[in-house]
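Hi there. Long-time user, first ticket. I'm pasting a complex I've been working with (about 788 residues overall). I'd like to know whether the download I got is complete or cut off, because the file seemed smaller than I expected. Thanks.
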Amino acid sequence: MKLEIGNFYVRDIVFGNELSLKDGVLTVNKEEALDFIRQDERITEAELYIAKPGDKIRMCPVKEAIEPRIRPDGRGIFPGYTDDLAPAGEGVVYALKNCSVLVVGRHWGGFQDGVIDMSGEGQKYTYFGQLNNIVLVADTNEDFEKHEQQKKNDALRRAGHKLAEFIGACVKELTPEDTEVYELEAAIRRDPEIEKLPSVVYVMQPQSQMEEMGYNDLLYGWDTNHMVPTFMHPNEVLDGALVSGSFMPVSSKWSTYDMQNCPNIKALYEAHGKTINFLGVIMSNLNVALDQKERAAQFVAQIATSLGADGAVVAEEGYGNPDADFVGCIVALEDAGVKTVGVTNECTGRDGQSQPLVTLDEKCDAIVSCGNVSELIKLPPMETVLGELEALGRDGLSGGWADDEILGPSVRKDGSIIMENNSMFCGDQVCGWSPKTMKEF
Amino acid sequence: MKKAVLYINQFFGQIGGEEQAGIAPEIHEGQVGPAMQFAKDLDAEITHTIICGDNYMGTNTEAAVSEILGMLEGKEIDLFLAGPAFQAGRYGVACGTICKAVKEKFNIPVVTSMNVENPGVEMFKKDMYIMQGGNIAAKMRKDVTAMVKVANKLLNGEPVGSADEEGYFARGIRRQTWLADGKPASERMIDMLVKKLNGEPFQTELPIPKIDRVPIAPAVKDLKKARIALVTTGGIVPVDNPDHIQSASATRWGRYDISNVDALKGGEYKTIHAGFDPAAADADPNVITPIDALKVLEKEGFYGSLHPYFYSTVGTGTTEAEAQRMAREMVPYLKEDNVDAVIMVST
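Hi, the file is complete. Here it is re-exported in full:
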């Protein structure tokens, strides 16, 4: 399977008359884009903003991030979700680089939503602080969940995915600045020189813990709670087969942007043919019941050994309960003789003194650690807030609180905030971006 | 200039060897023994040196600590140093003991140094910066330099780096930190993977600590006479959540009177736990806290009696340390009512 990603680099974004990309300047016709968004009758209020690195902008509650893309052959960029079902991972897709569509609630947030700062001390806590962002701030008529702590955010998230494709359309007829080629032939009968190298699978554990539909990550539109692990081509993940959900404390989340650009997959591709033989992706999931966790681990170990994998990398989109799936999967692989590296974040508490994962096993001897969800973060006021900052303390965001005897409220009268890293939007970057690690002090 | 005090034993205090190990603490103005080495680069003046016999500290600990704290009372001190103690066991324990007491009493930073073999390391490493020192006194200059480096950061209010960077024994604290080279997790993953596959040494970023397992309690001897209590981390509370228990990363708990109810009613109780789908628990809180079943079984005489309160907090994201503290706060209520066994309901 061969995927060519044609890259168009966005150096600036402006509002103007015609949706276009010229000399790196992305122009968006705001009214035209908003009219497109309002086609979904659930959207009651919508506005677009531009947020670039260095801007004095804070966003909250942020719900999703998507890379704008288009397929020149007319196929959709999220097959089975916003577009008709079709195989992903093969052919040509165009991508607007250094650029994302962010979706922010106009008023209401929830457990799974977060914060992004575009400048100052807070900028470094998320990947999106360094991107040129088109920000959709909107509200919906989904009153059934307005005051729910767990929100599906369906209308808003879909609006974001559709807007990413709508904006991506401006490069459909253009020639990309450069092209990345991702090609991986069948997992068996490869070039003998490559087959001499140790073979490796990448095991993804996307978020799928909700029993009710509508919250979990989707695979070609299919709820990942309703599947057992399966073997996939890495190109499918890079090409929109996997779409982010709306459930986990958000520093642990992989946004759709993270999946489209999954750095762990790209690093394995980079090493392929040099130091490893990259076989492909085992798409697993995260479950709440013990037998489901054990079943998934058993499937992963079976697929890995059937493929003849010498090594594996396991990455989890979550912490707490999902740590059991993560550790269980690594142990199952190690027991099957597959040398495994794990990628995760930790929950060591505000004082750093708690057990890092809820369950541990000495077989997990090679872990890349990306951050502490419960680290306390204080940030000064920001000139502009997109969304509603009060949501951080009011709506049960996983890293915010209404009040506390010692720390006071998360959102202070002057607009400064104190929060746990838990609510930094996709802050722990277990998908592979993370420049953070954990150290002993 | 800021002011510091150094603690040393009878040997380094130039009073004598083993035969002088029983001497009571004495305080000297100015710098004695190793204090002169510290003074060279320390960003503070060492105003006093305290000398105490190792055996005196070991056998009359309470008196020794109290005498030394008395000597320091009213003095202007910004930093307290002790040692280095090398591999000398009694000296190391003495340094740890007095550093801990001074830190607690005067709330000032303390720094000491010991060899990894010194029993004082395990006893006190969680309480203070103990630099990883040499095994013999010939390492004095090196150990003092290491202590001064961290001490100066503390004196100047600069952040102290990680245990590896600074060379102290890890204090059981794990924090997130930005890598100086910004190397992303994906590249660190590949490096670790290739080394592991090739059988080369590699360094995990999460050394697996000793697992804190709680042994399963012995079975209740006579259930017919047992007093039973119900505790949950499922977040069941009266609908107005009177104790303001957090929905995740909880630090609060509550106990609620169930002596006059046969079951918990939806609408009167709900869950505030944010880590699972609350629909079933809100509709019927007994699915988390089975008061209904316990009341029936109590009437039927299946067990002795039910403690009149249930206890609730939220488990999702809650740290072990907070969970342990909350449990310690609950236990006296249970003991006071002679509870024999607790049903612990998670989610």
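A couple of notes from our side: The mean pLDDT of chain A is 97. The two ends of chain A are 46 Å apart (CA to CA).
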